[in-house]
Design a protein that fits this description.
The protein is an alpha/beta fold. The protein has helices spanning 29-37, 62-69, 89-99, 134-153, 175-183; strands at 3-6, 45-49, 74-78, 104-106, 112-114, 117-122, 158-163, 168-169, 172-173, 188-191, 205-207, 210-214, 225-226. It is built from five helices and 13 strands.
Length: 228
């Protein structure tokens, strides 16, 4: 049983926003995702770090989730900034049941366990006190609450954190999120959101006791990153 991560699938099987229009690595990206998952087994677990589907609502997302259902292994998904289909966990659960989807779980105000390791996370947020608005501050505070709820659910287990937004990027640090990770002794953090040339500024490796890994799909060339 392996543990993997990848973010930013940006599926658009029922909408007119295919990422192929960007060319380069995004050309025929759904086929690349299938190929990237092809070596995974039925008992493997992949955390999908947000920006799953361009759908504007749950009904429109059906084809995208059926696509994910068809990929090998169990998938745990969290919210990204473009996941407008996102709804309450109860509604998403009923939607999955109606579609016969049984390999996808939602990471939201909870955690999952991979052996003795707790898989925690939330979307996260970019916020700088000097330039951030009150609206941004409210969003950050909400995300901090969700992240802490997830971390608390892990108890005394070793914790891996999965976010959509990077808590560090270039010289920027979302100090509130980093401090929460430090408080709960998180040793590894995985994130997406960054694409293309922005990857050169991504913070990766150990910083102040936390190991950071960027797992945006195009950066990984659409093959999930093997964690364990």
């Amino acid at each position: 049983m392996g543990l993997y991560a990848m973010g930013d699938l940006h599926l658009s099987l029922s909408t007119d926003k295919p990422m192929d229009v960007f060319g380069g690595r995004w050309e025929q990206y759904t086929e690349k995702i299938i190929a990237g998952f092809s070596h995974l087994q039925a008992d493997d677990v992949t955390v999908l770090c947000g920006d799953i589907s361009w759908a504007m609502g749950l009904p429109e997302s059906a084809a995208d989730f059926q696509f994910i259902q068809g990929l090998p292994g169990k998938k745990i998904v969290l919210k990204g900034n473009h996941d407008y289909w996102w709804n309450t966990a109860a509604k998403v659960g009923r939607f999955f049941d109606d579609l016969g989807i049984d390999t996808i779980e939602i990471l939201h105000n909870n955690c999952y366990f991979y052996g003795d390791i707790a898989l925690c996370g939330t979307r996260g947020w970019f916020y700088e006190e000097e330039s951030g608005s009150e609206h941004d501050k409210k969003i950050l505070n909400r995300e901090l609450g969700r992240l802490e709820t997830s971390l608390k659910a892990a108890g005394d287990r070793e914790k891996f954190c999965f976010l959509h937004y990077p808590p560090r990027y270039r010289e920027y640090v979302c100090r509130e999120i980093v401090e929460l990770l430090e408080q709960y002794e998180v040793k590894r953090c995985f994130y997406g959101h960054i694409h293309g040339s922005g990857a050169q500024y991504a913070v990766q490796g150990a910083v102040e006791g936390i190991d950071y890994t960027m797992v945006s799909a195009d950066y990984l060339q659409f093959a999930p990153f093997k964690i364990l």
